[in-house]
Amino acid sequence: MNVRQKKLIEKLHKLERLSIEEEAVIFKVAPMTIRRDIQLFEKQGIAIRTHGGAVPRISEPAQLFIQPDASAAQKKIARKALELIPDDCNLMLSAGTTTLEVARQLAASDLRICVITNSLPVAAVLFQTKIQVILTGGSLRNNSLDLIGPVTEKNLDEYYIDLLITGCDGASAEEGFFTKDLNLAEMEKKSVKKSSRTIIVTESHKFRKPAFVKFASMTEVSTVITDKKLSGEDASKITKSGIELVLV
Amino acid sequence: MNVRQKKLIEKLHKLERLSIEEEAVIFKVAPMTIRRDIQLFEKQGIAIRTHGGAVPRISEPAQLFIQPDASAAQKKIARKALELIPDDCNLMLSAGTTTLEVARQLAASDLRICVITNSLPVAAVLFQTKIQVILTGGSLRNNSLDLIGPVTEKNLDEYYIDLLITGCDGASAEEGFFTKDLNLAEMEKKSVKKSSRTIIVTESHKFRKPAFVKFASMTEVSTVITDKKLSGEDASKITKSGIELVLV
DNA sequence: TTATTAATGTTAATTTGTAACATTAATTAT
DNA sequence: ATAATTAATGTTACAAATTAACATTAATAA
Questions:
Q1: Which structural domain range is residue B129 located in?
Q2: Could you tell me the sign of the dihedral formed by the alpha carbons of A225, A188, B144, B180, in that order?
Q3: CB-closest option in B66, B139, B145 to A58
Q4: For chain A, how many structural domains are there in total?
Q5: Which of A147, A71, A41, A163 shows the shortest CA–CA distance to A113?
Q6: Are A104 and A50 in a shared domain?
Q7: Closest by Cβ to A155, choosing from B13, B48, B151
Q8: Interchain CB contact of B36 with A (< 8 Å)
Q9: Do B45 and B130 lie in a common domain?
Q10: Where are the alpha helices (DSSP H) in B140-199?
């Protein structure tokens, strides 16, 4: 491994793309030499060759943090949620795809707040932004990148929470909000009780499938943000119980 | 966005590579069509074009979890550390590049243990393995992916720890082990005191630069694993104070 | 139905990649 | 130190992939 190759690898580690033509000029060697370097890096699993260059190859643990992009509806819901977050507050963001989208938009916003979360993807998105991130401790679930268990709940006692933003696996205009996991429900229950205000962010189709365990009744939440496809019947039920309903 | 394009994106989301030739056959279209699809995906930031195809583009939060590969010495040290981990124990793995390498090797091992850590990369590496992962809560540091602070320390009280494996920023055969960060030192002190045994894993060059804050004196640790470049003088000092020294 | 637009296919020219061999630089043995 | 050997780099001709321009087909609107 020579100096040129080390410098090229350094660039890859900095997540830079390599252009064969450019690097050949920089190092004053034939393009073929850079090409051979890049072939070596690909064999070593460091790079992926592109047409005319190479890009860094991301290692496996990092790939676990890839979360699918949010739907258009989720993006709109998240944008609306952001408007309801006061500056300089303690926000609890629980795990979920819609809440992750809230985190993404928070990362790009000017809000200076403190976010408490049990979701590793949320923490990852907010890492190295203006936002202070606090992770609840606890057991890492084997199927999703979030923390649950008695210690997670105990951790919540350490903080004052102004606002909770959470999603749900299922919902009902009469009953309230549901999740599929019993342990997760316990954690959500505690969060709802602890925080001064609760905003539910969820796509409207969740209202057509109540899930396993209830973690909050409708009257326990302050605001529900969902999309316009919500049935008129459900909408009126929610508003009648005095809950703020925002349709996007 | 048509059906073909949706299916191609699905593949990318599953982290699969696309081959223009293959996909052209699968969807019974001209290679040019697939090429155009892939051009679109690149514009959207979903894919990176390679020579003859495309690979999924990893999103930014995931990229934060990329940690440089361990050195040859670190790999050897980690391998030795693994031999000293009993099956069915509670292991505390603190944050650091050498401990991360221990985690990588643990992930590939047959050990069935529970790992408590304050490092997000360690948690990521051990995610979805046989190993149960517990994260301490606390504040996410802005420069490194680990958790520190009073709540982190309080979290440690919740667990019994058989063995602590940790690295250091600096070391001295007389004084003991050091770290650069005051808050981190507090956390490390507590870990050392809590755990029945402590193994230090560190490259020998750390013995030539004592760092800022001491978190453990030499007699508080059980074993030191380092490379053979350790000076004979340091080696004899360590063994004379009754500490097990393993040179790899 | 026809006009218009969008999507896909086809082709030739360009660029990039490969493989084989030539040349130079670096090691090793003598 | 010099020759022999090996490794690294350069050069060339050829193969493959990409691009760009235009032709064709399918889809949509007038």
A1: 72-247
A2: positive
A3: B66
A4: 2
A5: A163
A6: no
A7: B151
A8: no
A9: no
A10: 150-156, 182-194
